[in-house]
């Protein structure tokens, strides 16, 4: 029996699809607590009420940024919606925040490390800024076995997003960035803050001096590299957030060769690599020659539910050199040692447990659960006649609403179904006309959201 059939059956079982509770328990013996709906407020900093001003000028690059960062803006609109409909059961399938409990084999390790800190023998203070040696070694052997990546090429951090900004500091303001369009907003915003861009051009909805590499259904969500001007730094996310597209081996080979031909550096964001189900590369270092032109950043956030625990890593091979022959890793190490005191030792204990045989098995089970959610969402929109992309190798479903403003679709869905999604244009001009639906959610909430989608668009 298909998931769609089950979903259709559940749709007909209630006359109050929007507000009816669900008794669905996907794991039988496991009880998953549902988070209570709270109001998340984004509060703007008020202007000083006195007439006094300092003589310090504002960073003009921050003045270039448009509106608020995407996800706080979504939280603000969600809060406004809750004020309007205080009794509504709002379901969040917008921000990519995990919902399922962290497996016990991982939390047990963090608990033991935490308890040990209260003993003389188990206490530890500052650790190596680059991360603890056993964890770096485990990352190398688990994700980069036979790829020529060694433990001292790996920098453990408090998350991939934080490392994106640290890498921007390394490269400075006199570089030209290229990004997939659409792409994760942190790439563009950090580039703006660093002073790498010109002003925002409202007519094309782009910042000057950034190369927006359009990725759409027509080109298989992989940019036409022959049509772009030479960039210094290329941000490339595979599987992609938000489209869910995973680059093939041939495509990544093209990207590496393009970087070599142009003397560019690729920053490969592989935060969703464990969701890849086919033969597509999980690391850019599977491509010959990539160590000379690429950096890879990744995270435990979407594998083990570490969005709040905070733990990730960045790989910078020794072979990667600046134009003067200086190793990029040495400059990144200096930035790490200057701006960072190392990831939490408790988080690193959890990371090490993630990479144990039991931890890897538990992470794959959680990823499998989110894949099931993704299938439910894809089948729902397919049944409604929408063009749906992604969902195979990533926990995101990219739904096409041709000819419509993505913010208007976001508002319509929120107003009429009380479900939070993410407007595609928040990821760049190439996202206009799309909405991203996240598969991160409790199963009963995903089923309920899909019932509401069916009632709205049937």
UniProtKB/TrEMBL annotation:
One of its GO terms (molecular function) is transaminase activity. The keyword Transferase applies. It holds the Pfam family Aminotran_1_2. InterPro entries: Aminotransferase_I/II_large (IPR004839), DapL/ALD1 (IPR019942), PyrdxlP-dep_Trfase (IPR015424), PyrdxlP-dep_Trfase_major (IPR015421), PyrdxlP-dep_Trfase_small (IPR015422). The keyword Transferase applies. GO terms for biological process: systemic acquired resistance, salicylic acid mediated signaling pathway. It comes from the Eukaryota. SUPFAM superfamilies: PLP-dependent transferases. Residues 89-453 form the Aminotransferase class I/classII large domain. Keywords: Aminotransferase, Pyridoxal phosphate, Transferase. Its cofactor is pyridoxal 5'-phosphate. Belongs to the class-I pyridoxal-phosphate-dependent aminotransferase family. LL-diaminopimelate aminotransferase subfamily. NCBIfam families: DAPAT_plant. This is LL-diaminopimelate aminotransferase. It comes from Vigna unguiculata.
